[in-house]
Amino acid sequence: MGNLKNSVSKNIKTKVAGQTQDDVVYCHIFDAILEQRLPPATKLSEEALAEIFSVSRTIIRRALLRLSLEQVVVIRPNRGAMVAAPTVEEAKQIFKAREVMELAITELAVQNATKAQIDECRKLVVKENEAFDQGDYGSGLRLSGEFHIKLAEMAENAPLLAFQRSLVSQTSLLIAQYETGSHSNCSLDEHTVLLDAIEAGDEERALDLMQEHLGHIRSKLNLDSTSASNDLHVVFSNVLKSNKA
């Protein structure tokens, strides 16, 4: 266990140049939420996470606080942190906010997107397509979320980008909690045609496509499904295995 902890700690320090331990821990947890490996209402034990990542509980606490500001983690006084579990009413409010946000972002993206940004998004859609084709629903969902965050970057509006990041991750929680039927993806062609409209400068079509896309996401939800593991060691087994190797 000691060697394993040292290996994880080394990986956290060097994973991406310029990233702090806080950043890396935050990104691992954020990705686990986007990939639905952490289901709603999962208790996030500081002690367990500190052991998994071989960092101090102070670092874990800062990462959880950052996630709580994005409303994907709830910190309860004297009870610790847990992954947020939106109610049906909260889900409706999140989707309404997402709809308003996405339309504003799409309008600005049509006005401000560069060819380099559009090309980068197209590459992201290819990776998303590959993930779904390989049956990796979690990674596909995360890449889909990244696509929408990239659209916000095209908008050239920092507050919208910050709000979008929070809403994308909250939407992932809603999908994990309320999606009905099998995991299917309707967004791949929708993302491509949306990019086509943005690149063509066709604002009206881009807005219509975004509205339709969000409607498809919302139509797949019901009130009762959960299926992911809430064991932190299971969720982050990829971190442990990669560092053990």
From TrEMBL:
Family matches, as InterPro entries: GntR_C, TF_FadR/GntR_C, Tscrpt_reg_HTH_GntR, WH-like_DNA-bd_sf, WH_DNA-bd_sf
Alphabetized UniProt keyword annotations: DNA-binding, Transcription, Transcription regulation
Keyword DNA-binding tagged: yes
Top-rank taxon, per record: Bacteria
An MF annotation (GO) of this entry: DNA-binding transcription factor activity
Gene3D superfamilies, alphabetized: GntR ligand-binding domain-like (1.20.120.530), Winged helix-like DNA-binding domain superfamily/Winged helix DNA-binding domain (1.10.10.10)
Annotated SMART domains: FCD (SM00895), HTH_GNTR (SM00345)
HTH gntR-type domain mapped to chain residues: 19-86
PANTHER family: HTH-TYPE TRANSCRIPTIONAL REPRESSOR NANR (PTHR43537:SF53), TRANSCRIPTIONAL REGULATOR, GNTR FAMILY (PTHR43537)
The protein, known as: GntR family transcriptional regulator
Species of the source: Vibrio paucivorans
